[in-house]
Design goal:
single chain; 427 residues; alpha+beta; Phosphorylase Kinase, domain 1; Phosphatidylinositol 3-kinase Catalytic Subunit, Chain A, Domain 5; five-stranded mixed beta sheet; four-stranded antiparallel beta sheet; 16 strands; 30% helix; globular; binds adenosine-5'-triphosphate; binds magnesium ion
C-alpha cells in the first residue's frame, strides 16, 4: 500500500530547552519501503534571526523567494530516498530491533514508524511531531541503578524474546540512538550518557576495551568525551560515554544539532568505502568556521593515525560526526566515539575509509602522502604521529588500568601494532 506520512520537524535552538517548528517533512512509502521524501521550511522559521540550515548542503535556507520543496541529494549511486539529516535522527539496527520488539512485529516497519519512535532521546536537536501544536514527546530518563535491568532487557531483545513488563524501560531508554550494538541512554550526575552493554556472544569484554581505547585516544591528545566504566555485578562492565549533543540547562537539557559525516558529504551508505579522510577534510574546510578549521583538520589527521595504529577498521562515515557550534557560527568535528581495535593475523591492514595515495592501506607512510590536505607541514604531521605513537606504544598500561584481563589483552595485541610495524621508521 502506498502512503504519504507528514511530520512537522522541530529543532531545539542552541541553549534552549524547548523546540520550534522548522518545516514539514513528507515521506512517500510503499509498505516498508521509503520511495521518496520532500521537505519545505516554514515561513516563520525562515524569517527567524537565529535560523539554522538543517543540513548546509541539501537543505540550505531559501532566500527571499517563494518557499521551495526540496528532495534528498542525488549520489553516484542514484537519488537517495531519505534526507541524511533525518536519517541521522532515526534509530539504526539496534533501535529498530527494539521498536519491532515493542510493537511485536517480526517484519521490517516503515521508515516513518522508526522515525517517530526515536522519541525524545534521539541523536541531535531534532524532534518529529504530527503538527505544530503537538506537545513535545516525553521519555523518562533511565538512571544508573537501571543499568542491570536495561542490560538484561537488551540481552532478551537480542535473543528475540518478548520483554516482560518489569523490563519495559528499555524501550524508552534504548530505541533512540543509532548504531548496531545494544545501548541505552541514561542520566547520571545531571548529565546524559550513552551506555554500551556487553553481550553474551562477545569474543571479549567489548565495552571495556572500547573504554580503554578511548582513554588511550585521550592520552594521545584526541578530543574524547567523559567516560565511565560501570560495574553491574557481572563479569563484564558497561561503558558510559557522555552525550555531546545534550547540555545541562537549568532543570533540563538543551540539545546540539548533529550531522554524521555521511550526511555532510551527501553520500550513499554504500559509497562509504570509496570515501577518504581527505574527503572529510574537505567538508571541514567547507563547512566549519574559519577559526576552527585548522584544529579540526589536525584532529581528523590524528584520528586517522590513531585508527591505523590500533587497527580500528570500523571507521565508516556514520562513525564520524559534526556538531553545530553557534559560538563560532560553523560546524565542528564532534568528539570521538566508537573506536574499537579489530584483531587480525593479517600483516597488511586496511581501514574502512581511504587514508592516502595508497588507498585504504593502514600505514603511516600512506597517511603522510596527504598531510597538506590536513593543513599540516611535513614536520608538523611527523610530530603529531610521533606524539600519538609514543602513547599507543604503551597501550597495555592503559588497558590494564581499565581492568582489561590478560586474555583480552592477548586478543587485542593482534590488533594494536607497534608504530614501527605501521611504518614509523620509513617516514
Ligand atoms: N558521546 C556521544 N554523544 C552523542 N551521540 C553519540 C555519542 N556516541 C555515539 N553517538 C551517536 O550514536 C550513534 C551510535 O553510537 P556508536 O557508534 O558508539 O554505536 P555502535 O552500535 O557501536 O555503532 P556501529 O553500528 O557503528 O558499530 C553514533 O553513530 C552517533 O550518532
Ligand atoms: Mg557506530
Amino acid at each position: 500500500m502506498i502512503s504519504n506520512t507528514g511530520f512537522v520537524v522541530f529543532i531545539h535552538p542552541e541553549q534552549a530547552t524547548t523546540a520550534i517548528p522548522a518545516g514539514r517533512l513528507t515521506l512517500l512509502e510503499q509498505d516498508a519501503e521509503l520511495l521518496q521524501s520532500s521537505f519545505g521550511y516554514g515561513r516563520q522559521y525562515v524569517e527567524r534571526q537565529n535560523r539554522l540550515a538543517l543540513d548546509p548542503l541539501t537543505l540550505a535556507l531559501p532566500g527571499d523567494g517563494p518557499a521551495v520543496l526540496r528532495a534528498p541529494p542525488i549520489t553516484p549511486q542514484g537519488p537517495l530516498p531519505e534526507f541524511g539529516v533525518f536519517r541521522d535522527a532515526t534509530p539504526d539496527r539496534w533501535g529498530r530491533r527494539l521498536i519491532e520488539n515493542k510493537l511485536q512485529r517480526l517484519d521490517p516497519l516503515a521508515e516513518s514508524v522508526y522515525l517517530l519512535h526515536g522519541g525524545a532521546n534521539r541523536t541531535g536537536a531534532l524532534d518529529f511531531r504530527d503538527d505544530p501544536t503537538s506537545p513535545a514527546p516525553v521519555n523518562e530518563l533511565a538512571q544508573l541503578l537501571d543499568l542491570g535491568y536495561l542490560k538484561e532487557a537488551a540481552e532478551r531483545v537480542e535473543a528475540g524474546e518478548i520483554i516482560p513488563a518489569r523490563l519495559e524501560k528499555i524501550f524508552d531508554a534504548g530505541s533512540s540512538m543509532g548504531g548496531a550494538r545494544p545501548k541505552a541512554v541514561i542520566e547520571a550526575d545531571e548529565r546524559q550518557w550513552l551506555a554500551k552493554f556487553p553481550m553474551p556472544g562477545d569474543a571479549f569484554s567489548m565495552p571495556q576495551v572500547e573504554y580503554a581505547t578511548l582513554m588511550l585516544a585521550r592520552e594521545a591528545g584526541l578530543q574524547v568525551p567523559p567516560l565511565r566504566l560501570e560495574d553491574i555485578g557481572e563479569k563484564r562492565p558497561v561503558m558510559l560515554i557522555e552525550r555531546f549533543d545534550r547540555i545541562r540547562a537549568g532543570d533540563g537539557y538543551s540539545r546540539r544539532h548533529f550531522l554524521s559525516a555521511l550526511t555532510l558529504l551527501a553520500r550513499h551508505e554504500s559509497d562509504s568505502p570509496n570515501t577518504s579522510y581527505a574527503d572529510i577534510a574537505e567538508a571541514i574546510a567547507t563547512h566549519c568556521a574559519a577559526d576552527t578549521i585548522k584544529a579540526d583538520l589536525a584532529e581528523l589527521f590524528g584520528r586517522m593515525v590513531f585508527n591505523i595504529l590500533v587497527h580500528n577498521n570500523d571507521d565508516h562515515l556514520r562513525n564520524h560526526g559534526f556538531i553545530w557550534d553557534g559560538a563560532t557560527g560553523g560546524w565542528r568535528l564532534s568528539p570521538l566515539y566508537d573506536v574499537v581495535p579489530a584483531a587480525t593475523h593479517a600483516k597488511t591492514r586496511h581501514l574502512h575509509l581511504g587514508v592516502g595515495h595508497q588507498g585504504r592501506l593502514a600505514t603511516l607512510p600512506n597517511a603522510m602522502t596527504q598531510h597538506g590536505v590536513f593543513g599540516l607541514t611535513r614536520p608538523q604531521a611527523i610530530d603529531l604521529i610521533e606524539q600519538i605513537a609514543a602513547v599507543v606504544r604503551e597501550w597495555k598500561n592503559t588497558f590494564e588500568t581499565a581492568g582489561v584481563d590478560g586474555q583480552d589483552i592477548d586478543h587485542i595485541s593482534h590488533a594494536i601494532r607497534s608504530p614501527r610495524d605501521a611504518g614509523l621508521n620509513a617516514l
